[in-house]
Amino acid sequence: MTLTYNSVDELxxxxxxxxxxxxRGLAVAIYLALKTGKPLFLxxxxxxxxxxxxxxxxxxxxTKLIRMQCYEGLDVNTAVYEWxxxxxxxxxxxxxxxxxxxxxxxxxxxxxxxxxxxxxxxxIEHSHEGRAPVLLIDELDRSDEEFEAFxxxxxSDFQITIPELGTIEATMPPVVVVTSNRTREIHDALKRxxxxxxxxxxxxxxxxxxxxxxxxxxxxxxxxxxxxxxxxMRSMELFKRPGIAETLDWTxxxxxxxxxxxxxxxxxxxxxxxxxxxxxxDMLDAATIQNMIERANVExxxxx
Amino acid sequence: MSNDPPINSLYLGxxxxxxxxxxxxxxxNLILFGGVCRAxxxxxxxxxxxxxGQALAHIQLGRKQxxxxxxxxxxxxxxxxxxYFDEAFDLFWRRPSDGxxxxxxxxxxxxxxxxxxxxxxxxxxxxxxxGASADELDSSMIALVxxxxxxxxxxxxxxxxxxxxxxxxxxxxIAKMPDSLGMRRTRRFEHGVGRQIxxxxxxKDMIRKxxxxxxxxxxxxKDKPRPVVLLCDISGSMERYTRILLxxxxxxxxxxxxxxxxxxSTDITRITRQIRQKNVDDALEDIGQTVxxxxxxxxxGECLHSFNWGWSRRVLGRGAIVIxxxxxxxxxxxxxxxxxxxxxxxxxxxxxxxNPLLDVPEYEPLTRGAQALxxxxxxxxxxxxxxxxxxxxxxxxxxxxxxxxxxxxKRYLA
Lengths: 304, 414
Prior knowledge:
The complex is a heterodimer of chains A (304) and B (414). By secondary structure, chain A is α/β, with parallel strands linked by helices.
């Protein structure tokens, strides 16, 4: 693999240039994934930036990002390849008139021409073009055990066998990023083949940095208030704690509403951007929000 | 070879760059560390250790942080292992004054007073000196069990081993066990009579028959057994049934597909991994050591709250069936219990309440807890004379006929 980063520091800087603030541990994991060709297995609550890593990596490496969203019942036909049946049947009718031999017919029907390439096959084939793509296997926990077992095979050999065509092998294995929200435990056998990293919610300064990167025009005070407020909220016992994605959505919402600082009214109006469960919204009555705003103000002053 | 460290000692490099190991000493230390991680219950294979060795070639060994994350990315495969790993790492790779440190596990105990710890040293750790043999080291490391640090004393539960008759009965029961407690239609297809045409098969047929269509092969949705979640009350009032219920849970975990097991009284503990062991005596002993709240009061609401918040999203996917095993005696917060039962009912496909407090034939679910549970369960399975597993299995067999909780609700709820 032609990788220009020779140290973890370099990679960390490059990630920051792509507006991705990675803590040291994550940077080490990514660096090792690139160097040793092992898949990167990322776990963490929703909205902490797991998917984003794959996007940033593909931009960084200047390669294509191939994304595969997992869901239950995902099978070889949607994940790897499928034959273009309509095309094949049409072609078969035409060939019948020519009276071809059975073998010749099969060769023609099951050729690249009628092969529909799905993400996993694409990821393996694209490697031929000199630069390995980034393959994002998103939310693996949504798929079922059958698919997990198939993936196990793919990730160890990086080759796919199509009975009618033969084995297709990647000359350059793709950079694989697997993510999971932990709605189901992924089998140990799969995790063992990967580099594991648990992405936690960011601490105050990291999150502030992210907010400022993603919304450069924001008033510094508001950015600090937002960050402090969200950090405070995460310490509460919520069914779904807000992730970085929610922080950024909320920031965008407040900017769109032309707000310069947090007020009880705006927070109440925009709570739906941060909290997605009615139980959680109910926990935040006016008095609680007022308290949280005051605490956020103090925190923001101190950080400023 | 006076320069070589003893087999159970850690060798550290020169003072100016302690992490720059040369001449195979690093490998030596890594293997020792791998052993410690294995003793803590992590799945560390020789292959993994070889991967670590290769990965270390890519980083600057001088940076402790990078060294730490490299080891962590390879050895840890689960979030909860991170805490164990951190502590083991700190203790193992700290720099001692003399360049050698023994892997004396009592030092873990000393450290415990200074900071919060995730694991306790073995109770009777032998004070292994420099000359301790490899065997001794090995045995003391295996005794190192991860557990939560608690103010209260660790109360081990002692389950007598199964008798020959009990084992015999368990075998009979397993044979009678239903294969599943319900099926779920998955989104995966299998060959068979159905409404959708299997294009792939059709194409193959057509080629074989030179383009003729003689029949339309179909496929249908595949059915799979539903996952099962067991929540078992182990509080004081349930004490006399605990052993038999754990046997039952063990049987279920061994014969059904995807069973998650939890026990609760004042706190809830997941015992899925422990109960999966083949030998029931080993499993029970392991559970006795892991679970700390034997025979306490019951706080069902609080326990269901931590279950709903911490576990439900991870174990109640895919239309799970929940079996709640409790006598309905409750000392906790009743409004909270109502709220959590609502949530639990919404999150699962079917909620079954197995009630063992029915030695008296005229038992009525009238306690506060029982009154709070009854409105939310789909099935109410009272079990009289819970003396053996066969009784429970019989109750579960009746389940397919949908023994509804409605009759009980009409009779006992205002």
